[in-house]
């Protein structure tokens, strides 16, 4: 098979992948809106628009299902893209926001905000970003200072992750009222999402993803290695900091909405990369699409599989993510290369 045939076949595969992704995204959103303790039909939702959402079904749709489904789609996209960027910058398939301390940094910031009486809005999202960015930069700078290998960097991230979680637990110990939301926050869930928390986070996440989509060529160059990128004229320190900052915005805002959702940034980018390759112009958009669909489907399952009981969506993700992490670790011999 010649190169032109291979290129045509690859482009056809990518088009199919986009089509499947968008269909899955639409289906997951419809399931998220209609399924739950109280099922809503499409006709009920359409009728609620005509009645100004005055009916019981209309209120459930407007104030419960819509913000929750939107939050799951947005958080899934944010965490998947964040994971893809971090894996590219660090050049390790095992890197993800939940593993190298990014989520925990945002979680500590949110815990401190809660202790200070900040429960939502733009301030919460900004503080979550600062916590996430501080954590990822601490891991990155510490790894560079000691000349850590890519595998050791993951271990540094795990250590920072544990330290930040310990700080969060200390805050809860000394300020018990913060512990009321602590358990759900640590596992991750969408039941308490409100528009006051959703809208600011959505704006920041959308802006960050748009900026990243314009920097896909730079991300590809950076993943070639620092020496190669520098030889091509790239300011590697500046670009690495920029990419990690944008990844921290995505993870931090997602944490401010849903808590510490784990493994999304690991599973989705890795799965997409296996099919679509590592080219950032494909990897990032597809990660956003499949990440949103994945989290939305998990959240729908969390509130319907054991109805009338609801379990936090983070539990389902942990059951799916932990075996996947072990699989990558064994197959990739530590995840030192990007497949």
Main attributes of the structure:
single chain; 339 residues; mainly alpha; globular; disordered C terminus
Notes on the structure:
- The model is unreliable at 334-339 (pLDDT under 50).
- By secondary structure, the protein is mostly helical.
- Helices cover 76% and strands 0% of the residues.
- The chain is globular.
- It has a domain at 72-262: ABC transporter involved in vitamin B12 uptake, BtuC.
- Helix 1 (3-34) runs parallel beside helix 13 (280-304), helix 4 (102-115) packs parallel to helix 6 (150-174) and helix 8 (195-213) runs antiparallel to helix 11.
Summarize the structure.
This protein has 339 residues and is mostly helical. It is built from 14 helices and no strands.
> With helices defined by DSSP (H or I, 4 residues minimum), what is the helix count?
14
Fraction of helical residues: over 70%
CATH topology of the domain at 72-262: ABC transporter involved in vitamin B12 uptake, BtuC
Q: Low-confidence stretches at least 5 residues in length (pLDDT < 50)?
A: 334-339
Number of strands: 0
The Rg value, from CA coordinates, equals 20 Å
CATH H-level superfamily title of the domain at 72-262: ABC transporter involved in vitamin B12 uptake, BtuC
Silhouette: globular
* Secondary-structure class: mainly alpha
How would a crystallographer describe the biggest sheet?
Answer: none
What is the mean pLDDT?
A: 86
Note the run of SSEs as H and E. Answer: HHHHHHHHHHHHHH
For the record, what CATH class of the domain at 72-262 applies?
Mainly Alpha
CATH A-level architecture of the domain at 72-262: Orthogonal Bundle
End-to-end C-alpha gap: 23 Å
Strand content: under 5%
Oligomer: single chain
